[in-house]
Description:
By secondary structure, the chain is an alpha+beta fold. It is 24% helix and 30% strand.
Amino acid sequence: MRKSLPAWLALALALGLPALAQAQIPKVKITGVRAGFTGGVSADGQRKSSRLKTGLWAPVYIDVQVGNERLGSGEYDLVVETTDSDDLQNVYVERRFLPTMEPKESAMLLSYVRVGGSNSDVKVTVRSRYDGRTLSEMVLKANKGDYAPLDSSRYVYLTLGGPLMGLKKALAQRANNPLNKELGDDDLEPEENWVRRFAVADAVELLPTSWFGYQAADAVILATGSDKFVADLNRDNDDQVKARLDALAEWVRRGGRLIITVAHNHQHVNAVLEKLKVIDVQVKGELPNLKALNGLTRWAGPGSEAYRARPAPDKPGELPDLEVANLVAGKGVHVLAGVNNVPANKDESPLLLYAPCGLGRVIVLGVDVDQAPFVTWKGQRLFWEAMRREVEPANLDNLDNPNQQQMRGAWGQQGQQLASRLVDGLELFPDVPVISFGWVALFIVIYILIVGPLDYFFLKKVVKRLELTWITFPAVVIVISVVAYAAAYKLKGNDLRINKVDVVDIDLHGNHAYGTTWFTLFSPRIQNYTIGIEPNMPAWGKEPDVKNAAGGKSRPEDWAKERYAPLVGWMGRPENLYGGGRGGSGGLFRRTYDYAPEASGLQGVPIQVWSTKTFGASYDHPIGAGELIEAELKFTKAQQNKVGGKITSHLPVDLQDVVLFYAGSAYSLDKLTAGQPVIVDQKNLVVAGQGDVALQSWFAGGYPKQQQALTQARQRPMNAGGQSAQPPGTFIKSILFHGHPNDQQTAQTQNSDLRMLDQRWRLDGKNRDEVILVGRVAPADGSAEQVNESEATPSRLWLGSLPGGGKREPLVGTLSQETYVRVFIPVAPQ
């Protein structure tokens, strides 16, 4: 007994401590959940939220309250569940420490969600990390209350700092469209129309802490007229504020559009600009004795250059108490308007500035748009109309056409979105035949004849024992099933097949590389896949030295947040996400998979036998000066209309079909061989307006060599819209510069989900200090592991494990790789 006493005590402790710990965990209750950005405030003061889009990430705000016990800093999981485009349940987990809270105290938590359809429910759970116990949960039912996901074709303006009623009134000219009610939008606010929506985040706590939380916003306006809001943005030693500013800056660099307005709080906004580091602009006080916005009026005119350049009226309309910031433009910043003229005179202070930032664009205005006298200025409507032309896609107004067929065709017809056509192309596999419906129908008829009349005739006339059908019927079913499986196995094969497309954007302004990849898996069996992406280092950039907060070895959590900020997720056809699909309520046997921390990977994604599923991923990483592409381009004459110099590729592979874009024109370089400089001299001088490549033919041509080879090897099925699926190379140019006047795809397609990659605005001829290079790598097909490990592949695909968590498992099967490269090259003054 004495020897067994320690064992009994250990068993008692093992059983008792967990129960004691559970009893000590204070109760936490979810009191409210709001998905998406706030669309406004209701009559009773409650925030309304449904500014989130199907297929894109958005923030989720969770209100929690503790019970009668004081809550310490215990660790909890915040679990958000919804469904993807294939109605598969997926789980996003935020691991957080709830703040210390007194009894009955409340707090707001922040997480993220990506809904797969307009009928997807969202379930939020607070769970103890100690024992996995559910402490509280709440479900948002689709299209109930203020939760109604928007389709991705709608354009959302998000204002940080406070609402802008003038923006709504200026851009919602068709708010009374009778089609709104028919489409189920009869609850629209008076200031909104079918295609444009408006959201506001008037408190710093509402700003996302992860960059992908801004995906539901197409343009963000940072209005700095509120003293409290700007002061909160400048809180020192606040890690949460820093995370929010870093997230906003990262969203801009990955393709976001940011408008910053400043005047009254210029001394504080300077500090915010320094933290954001998205544009080289300083605010040095205010400009004295200004009573009008003449330059802004000219810039916001009807659109003709003659109108903008005409003299201002004798009395343009004075604005009392007008505050205008003294903006000082730095490197790479362009002036759109001065205080009095367009363009600004040499000695004139700029009023409206812009600059590229990575793949994004930043605009700075030296006036507070959320304060008087701007909010009552008669030219406000013209200003917002002009700003709309600067930041919106060229064909967005087509979605707001009152004609019912045109409006519905923009999002309801399969293949109208570039993302859908890209998915169609990725699902084309060269040696996997598509069995037509006629053959399927024929075999169904044969099966019915065998199990019905033939079985009856055989038992009735030959065997003369009908009771044997209990044996013959299951035998026939088994034999037919085995034959069908064997035939499908013979046709479909037993190999994993992968189609993968990479776009690599190299920004030599900021020495940064941005990678975007899309890939489709054709699974030969029922299997759950763990999926990750990482850039191919060191072939496509040097490996960054990342350590955790304690200075030790990087963990998977550190890798996800700090190394390359990868974002991995499913990819669906945008037209199918809105109004289609099944509801998001959970079923008994619903298949579920998980997101890795910060959505840096996927774990346990189920794919059925001989089925496909498409995914998308992005990442970014810094590069050294001249590391991947080394360019020395300068203006060759004082008038700065000719560019010459040298371009050297240090990529591990040659680039084909290389074209240079400058000042609205295109020039052919044909090939950029790795390690061999290309001299831009008198022979192939880059001259504004004198290109040797017709843009219309360049956009229309796709990549014909690649397209022809793939078309011959692949059967191209028709999609739901009756269109023949095309290889991805057909649409890449339109994805990179959608909306260009010479792009024929613009009139036929929308580009809602891939808008972050659209750099059409950089081809309009205004940017005389930048040359854009576009080329492609020769396509590769073969063993999946060999192609994945090749230096010619810019990103490595992980299946079975995630990057940062150990050694990568070798890929099996085959892989088809396509790579496209775009380089933004600064032009230095002579």
